[in-house]
Amino acid sequence: MASVRRCHQNFLPRYATLSLEFINYILSCSLLYTHPLCKGDNCNDDGQCTYVARYKTGSVTSGIFAKEKLTLRSDTGSLESMELHMGCGFRQKNFEKFIGNNHLYGKQDLIAGILGLGSGQWSFLNQLGVAGQGKFSYCFQTFNPNTKGSETYLRFGSDAIIGGASQKVHTTPIVIPEFQTQKYYLNLEDISVGKKRVRFPRGTFKLHSQGEGGTVIDSGAPISIMYKDHFDRVVDLVDEYFDDLGIKYIGSHQNFDMCFGLPGRFDTSKYPSIILHFQQVDYVIPDYKANFIIFDEIVCLGIFRGNTSKPAFVLGAMQQANKRILYNVMDRSLSFATEYCEFDS
């Protein structure tokens, strides 16, 4: 029998053992049973089924593909079990730019892997089946490079709701591409910085049949990425805004292209909001911590300048902070509402 390594050790608080149990079966690349994902390059020398998942930001998780029997205690007190296929992560790398760099010092990183919530057959959402109802929601806290965990919840099925007391809910369609993809595309029509619109020509962010263009919302991408031609038009307005305040552009800093020198103490209320004008709704990002990265006396626009237009824009997690976001795959819609996410329960 091939040796089995232990999955990534998680240093964050785990679920109570009385509430959750995993029973793990490593999938093999045998002739008697071959899973659709266990073929060719996805098999190692020990005959084990392997996986590699990569993000556009360069983050990678890899390990062994396994079948899990997940047993949970329900809210009625009874035990419920389901079988899931998931990766047992042995190695997570290139996350250090955003979420810790422990492995550079001989320690384990906080990242245990990637939870797939796309529309593909083997995503966690689709494996939940009827129980998942094709819905999930989350509410991210403001980005903090020193964070060691979060008290917020990822919700599925009947637990994924939106529109609490005094919440104004906005809804925009999820675009269904002509090609196969696990990404969630939205119709982005224009962008504003402060009170000024860029005024992109109609169809600038349109999704084309070969995957060119389009706007993706991705909870797994830490920072938003925009195709360079569109990025340059947005930063022209950002530059103009700060120039009016007497704050000068100083070039790039670390991985960010649009940075400015702050003159000592700066009134945070003077930062511009950014508005994404989606089909039927405006997605307003008023919090400066969701739009900018601050390094002592340097402030940078929290969007990466991308070299590819596939897609043209990725709305990352940082710009999703303090919003309740609900994906409904069944009716092909994405809803969002402003919420202070540290109060999530």
What's the gist of this structure?
With 345 residues, the protein is mainly β. It is 7% helix and 34% strand.
Structural write-up:
This protein has helices spanning 124-127, 228-244, 288-291; strands spanning 20-26, 50-54, 60-73, 79-93, 135-139, 155-156, 170-175, 185-186, 188-193, 196-197, 215-217, 224-227, 249-253, 256-261, 274-278, 281-285, 292-295, 298-301, 303-306, 313-315, 323-328, 333-338. The chain is mainly beta and 345 residues long. The strands form 4 sheets. A 10-stranded mixed beta sheet has the order 6-5-21-22-7-8-11-20-12-19. Strands 1, 2, 3 and 4 form a 4-stranded antiparallel beta sheet that branches. It has a 4-stranded antiparallel beta sheet with strand order 10-9-15-16. The radius of gyration is 22 Å and the shape is globular. The termini are far apart. Residues 1-6 and 13-20 have low confidence and may be disordered.
Q: Tell me, rounded to a whole number, the average pLDDT.
A: 84
Question: What is the global morphology?
Answer: globular
- Cross-sheet strand order for the largest sheet: 6-5-21-22-7-8-11-20-12-19
Strand content: 25-35%
Q: Secondary-structure element sequence? A: EEEEHEEEEEEEEHEEEEHEEEEEE
Radius of gyration: 22 Å
Main sheet makeup: 10 strands, mixed
Which runs of at least 5 residues are low in confidence (pLDDT < 50)? 1-6, 13-20
- Helix-residue proportion: under 10%
Quote the distance from N terminus to C terminus: 44 Å
Instruction: Give the helix/strand class.
Output: mainly beta
Number of helices: 3
Using DSSP, what is the number of strands? 22
